[in-house]
Write a structure and sequence with these properties.
The structure holds two protein chains of two kinds.
Chain A: E1 2-9, E2 12-21, E3 24-29, E4 32-43, E5 46-51, E6 54-62, E7 66-71, E8 74-81, H1 83-91, E9 96-98, E10 103-108, E11 115-116, E12 121-127, E13 130-135, E14 140-145, E15 152-153, E16 158-162
Antiparallel strand pairs in A: 1-2, 1-8, 2-3, 3-4, 4-5, 5-6, 6-7, 7-8, 9-16, 10-12, 10-15, 11-14, 12-13, 14-16
Chain B: E1 2-3, H1 13-38, H2 42-50, H3 56-63, E2 71-73, E3 91-98, E4 101-108, H4 119-135, E5 139-145, H5 163-175, E6 180-189, H6 194-197, E7 201-205, E8 210-212, H7 216-223, H8 229-233, H9 235-242, E9 247-249, H10 252-265, H11 289-292, H12 303-307, E10 315-319, E11 327-334, E12 337-344, H13 350-365, E13 370-376, H14 383-387, H15 390-403, E14 408-417, H16 419-423, E15 433-436, E16 441-443, H17 447-464, H18 471-489, H19 491-496, H20 509-520
Parallel strand pairs in B: 4-5, 5-6, 6-7, 6-8, 7-9, 12-13, 13-14, 14-15, 14-16
Antiparallel strand pairs in B: 1-10, 2-3, 3-4, 10-11, 11-12
The chains are: A mainly beta, B alpha/beta.
């Protein structure tokens, strides 16, 4: 049985896989293996363990966002990264925003040159009796707007282009 | 499972205006429910007190285990039915805990026209008995009814799902070995006499309880015999002579105490043992649901924001996160129970329908109950989608739903239009329970579309007959259609007609679903059996 996690440390992403390899734990960090045993709870948040034979003491706490670790006089915060949302993000990193269905433009909320942040509503369309917000897939600057209020468009029509990222 | 990352901004004007709108709807709902439950003319309250009777709600409170929740069904049934309506359709139905056992409770409301059955009363009782059958829940009947409301007899007596169905359902429960108890507080007249007679156990209150096929006036009319109600079908007759009832009780309190003791004797149901994990409250504030739901039926919102406020720890394992994205599918827990959730994020395309059908099969394979969160305007229309076979993909989705053996639950979150209602397990697809939010709207199409369509039909009709087409005439058709649609599309109309099992306050959703899922597990699952999928 093994579990794998992704963490951010000093803005670098690390992949950690933990396998149970009785009597010790085998931990793989970015491809390097460590053997961990003798995990002892000293007090509520204070632990000790042996990593590759060396004793290490540390303080450990967890909240909803991250794991907080204190060892060797330094505090580390390890935000947890979610596998699924990481892949989803990668899929929408495009410059041209296209219509995924035919419809009608209800309102245009941006202009050429507008600076936008990911999630901002750029235009509102109506299709199949529903108003749908078309949002910015990433931070950027609007390069061109191909949509006019009350105009109809076909599927795959280009609605907004963002300036290409360098 | 990872936590859903909420993207809502509680400071935004949109959130604030949604919040006050939806909070207002919830407050109106609370007030309407309170009135339906408790508001009665003083003379009716006095009349019951004069007979030494409790109000129906008091009976319910004394029957239930103290401190346990009661999941009431269709509190506002009959609220929009005009003359054929009555508060709560003159009866109380729901699931509660009696002596540690989950039971369906059906109580006549004798504070309204002597507890007479209106057409919607019958519909509501038949539905409660259907719930008992589908979920194998024992039933406690609290009997106090004058029988069918005669002026409307043609709408409550003869058809397949009318009054006869109550006794058919009671007999079906008996055949299934599901227990029933009747507490006879008042009259059980005509068909009503079968309620205690078809129950396995019955208790009757001395002096006020009576069971007979025909009351004294009808007996006099039929045969000339003059007899009092008590002599004709009272406590002594039925517990000492006829054997129609089992236990005599001196007071209503005593009848309830005997009833609780009877339920205590029953063997404990072995529930279907589905996966249950440690319970965790949602991470996000449930109250924020008010700010998420839009004020306009046409506006969209991210269904994942709703999921985040219903499920344990706001944690969601999303299935096919980048395929058919207008149909959100995934696993989560509600009160610890593992569930599969399908929710709409827009119109259903071919890929969304296929994804949903496949996910439903996965839930069946994994013995995981399914929750449908409806906010749907339908399946995508147009040449391209017809050419891709949108009809056969929708057909597969419907077949997967019907073929399921796991319990299904449907929550009407916002819009429920056209075939989208079917593809998301509407009432006709036998979800164990259907609950709605007060902002919900339902119809074969949107009101504006229907009004436009009918105005257009009128125009062509006039053109054909060579009459002058006046804009005023067309506008009138449009306005009238729109108004009629808007009335009948409201959540209140839907619940009045029992198209659901009740409107719930969005913030109570998690609790209502928890009770519903728990109750559903009294029935063991069947086998999934699918028909021929058109590929």
């Amino acid at each position: 049985m093994s579990e794998s996690y992704k963490f951010n440390l000093d803005e670098i992403e690390h992949e950690v896989t933990i396998s149970k390899c009785h009597p010790e734990l085998r931990i793989l960090v970015d491809g390097t293996a460590f053997a961990v045993d003798d995990l002892i709870q000293i007090s509520e948040n204070h632990f000790s363990m042996r990593i590759n034979g060396q004793l290490k003491k540390f303080w450990w706490a967890q909240d909803e966002e991250a794991i907080h670790l204190r060892s060797d006089g330094r505090t580390y915060t390890l935000p947890y990264l979610d596998h699924i949302s990481a892949t989803q993000k990668a899929a929408t990193n495009e410059d041209i925003i296209k219509a995924n269905m035919p419809g009608l433009v209800v309102s245009v909320n941006c202009q050429v040159g507008s600076t936008v942040s990911a999630g901002d509503v750029l235009i509102v369309i109506e299709s199949m009796k529903m108003q749908i917000n078309i949002t910015a897939p990433r931070d950027g600057e609007v390069e061109s707007v191909h949509a006019e209020t009350n105009s109809a468009f076909q599927k795959n029509a280009e609605l907004i282009s963002l300036k290409a990222q360098e | 499972m990872s936590r859903i990352k909420s993207k809502i901004q509680t400071e935004s004007t949109e959130f604030q205006s949604n919040y006050s709108h939806n909070k207002g709807l919830a407050d109106e709902l609370k007030q309407e429910q309170y009135d339906a439950r408790y508001k009665r003319p003083q003379k009716d309250v006095d009349r019951l007190a004069g007979h030494g009777k409790m109000m129906p709600r008091e009976r319910l409170e004394k029957l239930l285990d103290p401190g346990t929740p009661f999941l009431e069904f269709s509190t506002l049934a009959g609220s929009r039915a005009g003359d054929a309506g009555s508060p709560s359709a003159s009866c109380i139905t729901g699931i509660g805990v009696v002596s540690g056992q989950e039971v369906v409770i059906i109580g006549n409301d004798s504070s309204i026209k002597g507890g007479a059955w209106y057409p919607l009363t019958v519909k509501k009782i038949v539905r409660a008995l259907d719930i008992a059958i589908e979920n194998r829940l024992p039933v406690v009947h609290l009997c106090d009814s004058a029988g069918g409301f005669l002026p409307l007899q043609s709408e409550l007596f003869p058809d397949r799902y009318m009054a006869g169905r109550m006794f058919r359902n009671q007999s079906t429960l008996s055949k299934m070995n599901v227990k029933q108890l009747a507490l006879v507080f008042g009259h059980c007249t005509a068909g009503g006499a079968y309620v205690p007679a078809l129950s396995d156990y019955s208790v009757i209150v001395k002096g006020t309880g009576a069971v007979f096929l025909a009351g004294p006036p009808l007996v006099k009319a039929a045969t000339g015999e003059i007899v009092t109600a008590d002599d004709l079908g009272g406590c002594d007759l039925h517990t000492q002579v006829s054997g129609v009832c089992d236990y005599p009780a001196d007071t209503e309190e005593e009848a309830i105490a005997i009833g609780r003791e009877i339920v205590e004797q029953w063997e404990k149901t072995t529930k279907w043992n589905i996966r249950k994990d440690a319970v965790e409250e949602p991470y996000y504030d449930v109250d924020e649901l008010y700010g998420i739901l839009p004020t306009d039926i046409k506006k969209s919102f991210d269904i994942k924001e709703v999921i985040a406020r219903i499920v344990d720890g706001s944690k969601f394992h999303e299935y096919q996160p980048v395929y058919g994205t207008t149909m959100v599918c995934g696993f989560a827990n509600i009160w610890g129970y593992k569930v599969g959730i399908l929710g709409n994020n827009g119109v259903i395309f071919n890929d969304s329908a296929l994804k949903a059908a496949h996910f439903i099969e996965l839930c069946n394979q994994n013995n995981t109950p399914i929750l449908f969160l409806q906010n749907v305007t339908g399946f995508m229309v147009g040449k391209e989608y017809e050419a891709k076979g949108i009809s056969k993909d929708g057909a597969k989705l419907i077949q997967a739903i019907v073929g399921s053996h796991v319990p299904k639950f449907t929550l009407m979150c916002h819009g429920s239009f056209g075939a989208g209602n079917y593809g998301m397990c509407g009432r006709a697809y036998d979800p164990r329970f259907v609950f709605s939010w007060p902002n919900h709207q339902i119809g074969i199409m949107g009101g504006e579309q229907a009004a436009k369509t009918l105005a257009d039909v009128k125009k062509r009709q006039l053109e054909r007959t060579g009459e002058k087409v006046e804009q005023k005439t067309l506008d009138k058709v449009y306005e009238e259609t729109l108004e009629a649609f808007q009335d009948q599309m409201s959540a209140y109309y839907a619940t009045s007609e029992l198209w659901d099992d009740g409107i719930i306050n969005p913030i109570d959703t998690r609790n209502s679903l928890g009770i519903a899922i728990s109750a559903s597990l009294n029935a063991q699952p069947g086998e999934p059996g699918y028909g021929i999928f058109r590929f």
